[in-house]
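Here is the promised in-class demo. Please do not try to memorize the tokens; focus on the logic of going from shape to residues.
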């Protein structure tokens, strides 16, 4: 039935793949946008929809092709929007407008926890705040997910931080709040299955909290190998070259944000992943070697 179909935008991305996996496991018929006809999505059980998910015309075609009345919307400041908050907003607005035109009955928008509380230097969150406001006024039935830092950033070769045996790196040594992108998908599935509870509501996705030493301890416990915790770069260089992210981390480090807690999120998803859970789920280092040896 069309009501059980869900369209995932950018289904081949870091978030989209695990959201699609969670939707499949929840029993949805999953369609995912991809820019390549050679996508790996069919191997996952996802029906590919070849389109540019940032373009209104392509989005209209994607809704028509899939017949989906539920959609997971994600915007990408760093890649798709080329670090332009105005462009990210326009891309997100195109998705919301296309969903409205298609008669979508539930749109899940992925924002960021505490997006409205970060300072003016955190440019990659400006569009998220504006898109939340636009969505609330659009007339499209919606729910909002507001995740914190992704565990996946602990193995991010694309941003020069591959996960290697015996060491774990991050941009901060301090206490942070983390979530798994798979748990974003599981939370979205919960919202889609309980619209009476979740329509017009938002949820902070925060599965675990701890500092980098505790992350290293978790990896060591899972892998059986001693693990060192190291900064991905000195704070001086973070401040100099990653001004946007530097100020985001200052909110975590100085103001102790986000305001939400793992305890609150676990009332919705009791088995939300801890650091140990995520390393087992992730399963391998950047070079393909298994974390847990047989």
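The designed amino acids, position by position:
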């Amino acid at each position: 039935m069309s009501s059980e179909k869900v369209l995932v935008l950018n289904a081949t991305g870091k978030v989209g793949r695990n959201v699609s996996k969670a939707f499949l496991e929840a029993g949805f018929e999953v369609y995912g946008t991809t820019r390549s006809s050679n996508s790996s999505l069919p191997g996952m059980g996802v029906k590919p929809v070849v389109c540019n998910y940032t373009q209104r015309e392509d989005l209209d075609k994607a809704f028509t092709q899939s017949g989906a009345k539920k959609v997971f919307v994600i915007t990408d400041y760093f890649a798709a929007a080329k670090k332009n908050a105005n462009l990210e907003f326009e891309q997100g607005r195109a998705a919301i407008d296309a969903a409205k035109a298609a008669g979508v009955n539930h749109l899940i928008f992925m924002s960021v926890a505490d997006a409205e509380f970060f300072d003016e230097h955190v440019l990659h969150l400006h569009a998220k705040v504006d898109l939340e406001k636009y969505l609330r006024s659009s007339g499209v039935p919606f729910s909002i997910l507001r995740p914190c830092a992704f565990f996946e950033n602990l193995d991010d070769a694309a941003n020069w931080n591959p996960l290697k045996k015996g060491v774990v790196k991050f941009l901060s040594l301090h206490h942070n709040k983390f979530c798994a992108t798979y748990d974003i998908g599981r939370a979205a599935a919960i919202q889609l299955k309980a619209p009476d509870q979740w329509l017009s509501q938002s949820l902070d996705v925060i599965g675990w909290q701890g500092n980098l030493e505790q992350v290293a301890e978790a990896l060591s416990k899972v892998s059986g190998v001693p693990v060192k915790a190291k900064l991905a770069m000195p704070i001086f260089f973070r401040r100099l070259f990653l001004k946007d992210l530097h100020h985001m981390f200052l909110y975590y480090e100085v103001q102790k944000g986000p305001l939400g807690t793992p305890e609150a999120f676990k009332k919705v998803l009791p088995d939300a992943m801890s650091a140990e859970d995520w390393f087992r789920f992730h399963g391998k280092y950047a070079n393909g070697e298994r974390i847990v040896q047989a």
